[in-house]
Queue: 3 jobs
Job 1
Amino acid sequence: MADSAAKRQTDSGPDDLNVEVKKLKPDHENGRQEAESENILSAFKTSAVLNDSAREKTIFIHGKVTDQDAVVILEKTPIRQDSLDELFSGSSLKLEMRNDIYSTYRLQAPPHLNEIKTTVVCPATEKHVKKYQRQESFLVEETAEDYQSITLAYIQKQSFSMQWVYNILEKKAEADRIVYEDPDPQVGFVLLPDFKWDQKQVDDLYLLAIVHQRNIKSLRDLRSEHLPLLQNVFQKGKEQILQRYKLPASQLRVYLHYQPSYYHLHVHFTKLGYEAPGCGVERAHLLTDVIQNLQSDPRYYETRTLCFPLRADDGLLGKFKEAGKL
C-alpha cells in the first residue's frame, strides 16, 4: 500500500502488470511471448500530470490511448559506466555558459544512450489514477486487534486477485525473467527483477523473491514455523545475487514491506546505496530482524503493534478513520 514509481503496483492495493511499451505476441510453438516493437503512445492524449520528480527524473501522466484511460510513467534511465567513452565521443555539445574555469553545456547523446523507460497502465482504472497522483501520507499504528477487526476484514472484502503472482509461480507468465528458482513447495521461491530495474547496471539493483507457499499474506502471518522458509530465501537469494551480479551480501538491503503492496509473501533485494521506493523505516522490515524476532518470540508479528504509512486516498486509511483510530 505505498511503494512508488514504475513497478507493477507497489504503492496501494494489489500489483497490476504494468507493461513497457511493447506488444506481446503469443508464440504457439514454444508457449512463450515475444516482444514486438510498437509505438502505442502515438495516439496518447494527455489529460493531466499526476506527479513528477525532478530529483528522480520521473513523471506520471494520465491520458487516453484511443478511447481507453491510461497512465504513462516516464523515467530517465541511469547513465552506465560502460557507456561513458561512447557518450563522450558520440555526443554533441552546445555551450550555455562559461565563467573562468566553469562551463555548462547541453549534451545531445546518441539515441540509444538517451532512452526513457516507459511504463504503460492501460486500461487504467480510477484506482490507478489515484495511486500515481501526488498525495499526502499518514502514519497508522495497527495493534493486533486492529489487524483482525480492520485490516484483515478490509483485505478479505477487497478480494485482491493474486492470479498474476500465480502465473509467475506456474511459469505461465514472465518465465524468461526468472533468474533463479527453488521449487520446494515449503521453503522455495522464485527470484526475478523488479520492473523498476532495467538490469543494465547493479547500482540500482532490485529483485523480488516470491515464495511458493500461498497461505502467507504478509508479515502478520509469519510464525516461527516459517523460519526455514525465510532463512532459505535470505541465504539462497544472497548467493544467487553474488554469483550472477557479483554483489556481496554486505552491499544488499533485504527486507519485507508492511503493509505490502500485494498479499502474497515476497522479499525485496536492493543494493544498499540505492534509495528504492518504500525502503524507509516507516515501511521496510529488514529480513535479518524479522528472523531474529521470530526466533525470540514465535508469535512476534501476530501480537505486536505495527506502524505503516497510508496515502490519503487509501481505502484502508478510511477504515481506520471510521474506527476512530486516527
Job 2
Amino acid sequence: MCHLQLRTLLFVAWVLGYIAVLLGTRKMWTGKYVRSPLARSLFMNMISESEESGQETQEWYKCSPDLLGEVVRPLFVQSHLDQDTQAFLRRSIEKSGWMFTQFYHSFISTVLSPLVSRTSINGFLGRGSMFVFSADQLQQLLRVAPEWRGERLLDLGAGDGGVTEVMGAHFREVYATEVSPPMKWHLQRKKYRLLGIDEWQHTGFQYDLISCLNLLDRCDDPLDLLRGIHRSLVPSTGRLILAAVLPFQPWVEIGGKWQRPREHIKVKGRKWEEQVTNLSNEVFREVGFEVEAVTRLPYLCEGDMYKDYYVLDDAVFVLKPVEE
C-alpha cells in the first residue's frame, strides 16, 4: 500500500513539474510570439489588412525574379497574403491561447512521441492542421475560374484533408492516400475515397490533377514517386501540383524517428530562387515534367503553447507531363 502511494506521489510530482516547465517555457516565449493580450490584439488588427500585414508576412511571398533562370522567370506567379490565409492565422492564434488544451496536447505528445509518428499524434489529438494555399491562390496557379470542374483529383499524403477540401471543390471525384491511421479516420469522415499507398497507380483510371504537397522531402523514393505520378495523369491535360519546402532537406519519419531516404534528390543552390530553378530545369525534367507555373507561399501549421503558428518556406509548382 505504501509502495503504491509512493508511486502515486511521484507521478503527481512529475506531472506538476512537467506543467511548471511548460509554464516557464511559455513565459520565456511570450514577447516574441505575441502572447500578451495587448500584443495579441495588435497582431490580430495587423493581419486584418493585407496591405499592412507586417514585414514577416511580406517576406513569405518575396521573390527576386532576376535570380530565377530564364525559362522559369516568366512562369513565376506573385502571390499575396489573402483573406483565407488571414483566417487560418487567426484560428491558429486563438487555439494557441487555449492553455488547458495545449497542456493536454503537450503531455500526450511527450508520452507518445517515442512510439508514434508526429503525424499520427496530431491526427489523434485533432491538431496540427496545415495551410498551403487558398482557393483564390489555387485558381490563379491552375488558371481556372471558380466554377471550373474536373473529373478526378488525387491528393497524395492528404493529412487531415484540410488542403484536400480546397482542391476538392473543383472535382467530381476526390481520392486520397495517407499512411497515418488517425489521419485516415479524418479523411473517411470527410467522405474522401481512400486508396492504399501501393494502390493509387493501379486503379485502371487516370487523374486530372494529382497533388503532392510537401511530400517529396518526406518519402524514401521521390523520383520513383514522380514517375508514378507521370504515368497516372490524364495525357496532355493532366497536371501535378507540387509543393516543396526550401531549402530542400529530405528526411523520412519511421516510428517516431527520422532517417535519410533511400533515394536522395540533390537540389543545387543556396537561395530560394536558385533551388526553384534547379528543381525546374533538372529534377522535374529528368522525370518527364515541365513547369507551367510556380509561386512562393508560406507552408503554415497550427501552433502550440510555444508558438502561435509554424511557418516554412514553400515553392508551389504546377507541372505538366511532357510526352516522350
Job 3
Amino acid sequence: MGKTKSVLVLTGRVINQAVSFIVFSVLDLVDFLLCFVYKLADFFIEDEWKPCYCCSGKEAITSSGKILVSERGKSKIVCLCSSKLQLEEISDTLYSRPSLVSEVSNFTVSELKRLKEDRAFNAQSCEKIKNGTVRSTFKVNSTIVEMLQGKFGRQQFHPIPRWSDCCCKICTSWTSSSKETLFVRAEGPRDKAREDVLFIHGFISTSAFWTETLFPNFSRAAKSTYRLFAIDLLGFGRSPKPTDSLYTLREHLDMIERSVLEPYKVKSLHIVAHSLGCILALALAVKHPGYVKSLTLIAPGEQGTQYVMRRVAPRRVWPPIAFGASIACWYEHISRTICLLICKNHRLWEFLTKLVTRNRIRTFLLEGFFLHTHNAAWHTLHNVFCGTASKLDAYVDAVREHLKCDVTVFHGQDDELIPVECSYNLQAKIPRARVKVIEKKDHITIVVGRQKFFARELEKIWRKSG
C-alpha cells in the first residue's frame, strides 16, 4: 500500500508539472499579446500609451509621478510630498517575472544593448588613456532632469478610476470627499474605551471579513471595553483607489495612521491581521512600539521576494488556489482582464450570486473580492506581499528584541496558500510567540465558520495582554 501510494503521488506530481508547463506557456503568450491590446485600448480611449512592466519598469513607475532612482535590485523611488522627499521601496518582482516569451525577446534586446554599451565603453576608455586622465562619472535619471527643467509638472495623472475600472457610487465614493482617508468601521464606546483593537484584512478582501464574522459575536463586556476598528486598505473596498499610486508599504501605513491612529487618538492598541495584513501589522508595531499591546497574526507569510513568488505562486494548475495566485502574481495583463470582467461588473455578479443562492448565504466574501482595481491589487501584491517580505526579518527581530507585546499566531492545517511551516518559522524567531494550528481549516475557514469561538479566543488574548 505504501509503495502504491508513493507511486500515485509521484505520477500525479509529474502530470501536474507537465500540464502546468503547457498551460503556463500558453498563458505567457496570451499575456504578451494582451500587452499590445491594452496599449491600443488605452491610447484610443484615454489618448495615452499606458506603460506596463513587460517592456520597461522605469516607464511604468515614473508615469505615476514618482522618480525612479534605482531601476534594478532593491529599487527605490522618490516621492515629492509638499516640501520633503520620501524614499519608497518597490519590488523587483514587478519587472522580474521570467517567461518563455519574455526571456526570448528580452535576451535579444539585452544583447543588442550590451554590444552598444561595450562599444561606447571601449571608446571612452581609449579617450581617457589618450588624455592621460581618469574621471569618475555618474548618470542622472532622465526623469529628474525633466523635473528640474519644469517638464514634470505638466504630466496628467488620473486619480479617478480608468476605463477598465468600475465607476459606480461605491467604488468612486472617495472622490467626492476632499479628505482622502480609508473607510473605517468603528464600534464600541467613544470616551470610556480602555483599549483599541485594529483589524487588518488580507489580500483582495475588505473590512467585512471582520465586521460580518467577529463583530457580531463579541461579548457585551468586550464591546463596552474596547473600541473596534476594521479598515478597508488603500485600493480595496470603499477606500480610495488612486490610479497614480504604487501602493507601497509606506503608503499603506501612512493611510492607516491618517485614518485611525491620528483622528481617534489611539494610544493603546491590539492588532489582529490576516495573511497580507500580517506584514502591515508587523511594520505598524515596529513603527509604534509603545502603542501595541498584542499582535494576533493569522496565516502570516514568508520572507524573500522571488521566494514568495515561487512558494505562493508556483505556476502550477493544482491546487486551484495556487493556480489563482500564480495568475495574480505572474500575469499583469491577464489579471487586468479578470478585473475588467469581474470587478468592473461586480454589481451584475453580486445580483447573479444572490439570485442563484436566493440570498441563503452571505456574499460579503464575494463583495470583498469584487471591490478593488487591477492597479491596486497588482501593486499591493508585489510591493507589499512580495517586495517587503524581505523586510520581515528586520521586523521580526525588532518585535523580539524591542517590543514586549504578546504574539499569537493562528494557522489552518489545510491552508494550501501559505504553508503551516511559515508560522513555525516565525515562532522560531520569536520564541515567546504562541502558534495554534487549527485542524481541518484553511486560509479562510480559520475565521469564517468558527467566528464565535475565535471571538472568544481574541477576548482572552486582549484580557491577558491588558
